Every structure is written in structure tokens, then in C-alpha cells.
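Researcher: Here's my situation. A collaborator sent me these components and asked whether they could plausibly form a single complex. I don't have experimental data yet, so a predicted model of the whole assembly would be a useful starting point for our discussion.
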Amino acid sequence: MRSEGASDGIERFNSPGKGRGLQARKEFEVGDLVFSCPAYTHVLTVNERGNHCEFCFARKEGLSKCGRCKQAFYCNVECQRGDWPMHKLECSSMRTFGQNWNPSETVRLTARILAKQKTHPERTSSEKLLAVSEFESHLDKLDNEKRELIQSDIAGLHHFYSKHLEYPDNAAMVELFAKIVFRSKALEDTLMLALPQRLYFSNDSVALMNHSCCPNVIVTYKGTLAEVRAVQAINPGDEIFTSYIDLLYPVEDRNERLKDSYFFTCDCQECTTKEKDAAKLEMRKLNDPPKPEVVKDMIKYARNVIEEFRRAKHYKPPSELLEMCELSLDKMGSVFEDTNVYMLHMMYQAMGVCLYMQDWEGALRYGQKIVKPYSRHYPAYSLNVASMWLKLGRLYIGLENKSAGEKALKKAIAIMEVAHGKDHPYISEINKEMEEH
Ligand SMILES: [Zn+2]
Ligand SMILES: [Zn+2]
Ligand SMILES: [Zn+2]
């Protein structure tokens, strides 16, 4: 196998049947940092402004404002200076457009990439193993809807950023947007839980990793730095796999998602043996067990209701959403066990609605039912499980059950110490929360 490029413990290689990939050059134990990589560029989403520094993404109180636009916030003068080459793309334009300044986040990120390409035409420190020009665009697989979205983003880019940027021709722009959309989706899928409000583009080595449903690493971010830690023992020569998708669901659902979004199906051990599917699709133990057709129909119903709910979230009021969850749980509960992943999916949605409505007791009830089966269905170190323990812990503490709260938060920390590293600021924040209560 031909090796291209190398970094400390990792190198780029040709993964049989998968194209390019990343492999280990040495041994890593669970919790070891396999590699870290700075973001090529990054942008804080508009609704997070004021909570985080625009430059280093530190979350703190008392950030100071950009004196010109009064919209961007920084730790200090150094961070403001560091961000200026990027912020200047928006600072005066925000003042000019005022309330009407509303480019999409993808447009904002693209403007930064174009600016960066101009100021750093050479390969940057975040492109050691893979240049941005090598990123996959999957241009040929874009449907009309996505093509239209891209054209409207290109229009937005010209509208809001024309002053400071030089634009490539339309074909090159479409390709760049396709790359960004593809990479952002991949990041959004994997990082949704950790970082809902920030965008990165993108860590080459992160983009090089292939998918497995039994991943041996997890990607987290410390500020704008991507950190990749082992969640299984890794030997020299092993391929490094991350997961692109939510691993809760059974094999068929996972591969549908992979095919839809990433244009391949997975052949990992989990997908071949379908080991976890029986538990994920657990049926109720009834004296008169449901017939296979009934089970099949219920799975079909479950998939439909998940899709229907996903759409309903955009327009239905919370009370109706909660009703949708409860009705579907009632119906599925006649066939499915409470630990069945379709039940868990709807309970998770119901918990989200309760949190939104500040119904803490309701949220806690759902969370208590979810967390144990979650721990069985997900891999040993999972951000989804950590995030559930974190939510539960905070709910317990908010509801004055301090000892249960601490226990749950400690479970979250145990996972995060492996995934995020022991010295991650998130962990000190959680420890502080425990001390304060
Ligand atoms: Zn800062
Ligand atoms: Zn400004
Ligand atoms: Zn798989």
C-alpha cells in the first residue's frame, strides 16, 4: 500500500475498497490523543454571538465588543486582532445592511474560505495530509434542490461580501459550495451534540477518516482545534475510523442514512454481524406474540412517524409535538419494548419538547427511561450517552436531587475524560456546577 504524507502517529493511506483513509503508525490506548488539527477556518453562528469569543471560541462572560459594528465579541485585544482578517469581511457590511444583514452560515463560512485562500495560497498547517482542494464535493450527486440552494448562496455571497472578495467563476463556486455543504453536514452529524452552534472548515485529517459503526476514535473540539482520541485500543497499521452518523439505529436504517448522505454503505463488523439489532428492535414479551407482518408494519410506522415528526418540528407548537410523541409511543408500545430504539427516539424527542417547555419533571421522566438502554445500544464511549447523562444530571440538580445529580454528572464526566481529554474546559465547567450546588 502506498503511503502519502505522515504526521506524528498517523499517516494517509489507501484503504482497500474505501479510497483514501487514515492509519495509525503507532499504538494508542483508550483515551490517548491520536492527533489534533487546527481548523482551516471557522465561524461563530449569529445566534451564539456574545456567548463565545469570535476568534478562539472561548465561552465566558464579559467579552468586549467590536467598537465598529458592536456585533462581534472578543476575549481581549489579541483575539480581536487575530480575527480581524476574517471579521473585516463582515464588519462594515453589517453596519451598512443593519437589520437586513442575513447571509446563511454557509455563505459566511465560504467568504472566509475564499479570503483565506487568497491570503494563504500555500498549504496551511491544517492541510498537512489533505489539501482543501482535494476535499470531496460529490458534485455529480447534487439534486436540483441542492443546486438551487447553492445558487442562492452564491447570490448571497455576492450581495453581502462583494467588497472584500475575489470570486472564482460560477462552476468553481458551485464546486466549493458543494464541498462545504458536504463537509459541514459531516461535521454537523458527528458534532451535533458537542457543538450545535459553531461551524468549522475543516481539519484535513478529520476529513480523511473513513466511517465505521464501531469507531475507534471520537472527534471533539477544544476551541477551534479538532482533537481526535482513541475510544478503542489501536495498533500500528490499524485504520482509524470515526462514525459519520447516529449509531443508535439498526443496520438497515444506518445504511440508508449513509447511502443518502455519504453515498456508500458500511461493511463494518456491526453491519455484517448485525449483533446489536435484536436488542435495538426488542419486542414486548407477550403471551400472544405479534405476527411478523404486525412487527414489519410497526417498524414502517415508526420510520414514518420519525420523519413526520422531524418535519413537524418546524411548524407545530410544542403541545402538539408532545401529543405526537405520546400517541406514537402508545401505539408502538403495544408491540415494542421500551428499550426499542424507535421508542427511545420518540422519548428523546418528547424529552426535548419538555425541556423547551421548561417542564423539568416531564423531561426527567423521559430521560430516566432513555439513559440505560442508550448505554447498551451505543458504543462504550459515546457522546450521545455522555450528553444524556449531562442533561439528566442537570435536571436532577435543578429539581433539588443533588446526590442523583452528582452521580449522573460523574457518569458524563467518565465518558468525556476519554472523549474530550481530562483537561477539557467542559469538564472543569461540570465540576464547577457540582461544587456550586
Ligand atoms: Zn478569544
Ligand atoms: Zn466589527
Ligand atoms: Zn457499519
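Model: Some features of this prediction you could bring to your collaborator: The pocket of zinc ion (ligand 2) is lined by residues 66, 68-69, 72, 87, 91 (CB under 6 Å). The chain has three domains: 1-39+203-274, 47-196, 285-358.
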